[in-house]
Amino acid sequence: MQSRNIISSGFVWLPVLLGILVVAILGGAYVYETQKPTTPTEPIYTPTTSTNPTTQNTTKTNTPTQTTTQEPISVPGMSKYTDTDFGFSFWYPSADFQITKEIISPAIAEMYATKDGQKAQQHIKVCAGESTVGECFDFIRVYSPTGLVMYPPQKMGPDPSFYSNDSVTTDYTMDGLRVLDSRVIPLREHDFILVGYWAFPTRFLTPLLKTIVATDPSVATPVSVAEQIKIIEAEKSVYVGQ
């Protein structure tokens, strides 16, 4: 009787062992399939703009601005003044002007300062002929942290005006810089050129202001060389015919 029970229990456990074996085999096969290394495939490139290679190369290549490739300009009787620190250049009659870079005096600093942080940074004096009084005008580079510049200085008049890069004008330099009321030229959002011409005739100043060009290529967008020469020659004719 005892041997029959042992045999019967052996038949009972045999299916269980076979089931466990099958599960182990299937589980091992699953692990192998999921964990085996896969061969990486090359990603497919889908162009976002154009499949034309020429067009793609054009968009990736920086085209030189007109300023960097512009041919030299020469106009007889006219000279070009350039100041990279100030950030601009302009043309003037060679024989009739004296140009000096001045130190910001305490008087100038106080005159152009405002409670909002407006500050005079650089000063260039331009004088006609041998005179240093009466026939001069000033270029004052001013920094304004608010992007709003006051001119003329409050100490010079009761009703100053306020200018910004958003001020509307129809007057431009040959560089595309805006000339606001013949006395304010925005260079950047916080940098301005203020023009003081207390006794200098406006009819002489306006043609000169039109020749201003920014020295920063990212700001400068000058007209063609032929147009620039016309503007410089127009300034020359004003002084010759005075």
List unreliable stretches of 5+ residues.
39-68
H/E element order? HHHEEEHEEEEEEHEH
The biggest beta sheet is recorded as: 5 strands, antiparallel
Radius of gyration, CA atoms, in whole angstroms: 39 Å
Distance between the termini: 141 Å
Q: Widest sheet: strand order?
A: 3-4-5-9-8
Proportion of residues in extended strands: 15-25%
Number of helices: 6
Mean pLDDT: 76
From the helix content, strand content and strand pairing, which structural class follows? alpha+beta
Broad shape: elongated
Structure summary, number of beta strands: 10
Share of helix, binned = 25-40%
Summarize the structure.
With 242 residues, the protein is an alpha+beta fold. The protein is 32% helix and 22% strand.
Please give a structural write-up.
This protein has 242 residues and is of the alpha+beta class. The chain has a domain at 76-240. Helix content is 32%, strand content 22%. The protein is built from six helices and ten strands, in the order αααβββαββββββαβα. The chain has helices at 2-35, 53-60, 66-69, 106-112, 202-209, 225-240, and strands at residues 78-83, 88-93, 97-102, 119-128, 136-143, 149-151, 161-163, 184-186, 191-196, 213-214. The strands form three sheets. A five-stranded antiparallel beta sheet has the order 3-4-5-9-8, covered by helices on one side. Strands 1-2-10 form a three-stranded antiparallel beta sheet. The protein has a two-stranded antiparallel ribbon with strand order 6-7. Strand 1 (78-83) and strand 2 form a beta hairpin. The radius of gyration is 39 Å and the shape is elongated. The protein starts with a helix and ends with a helix.
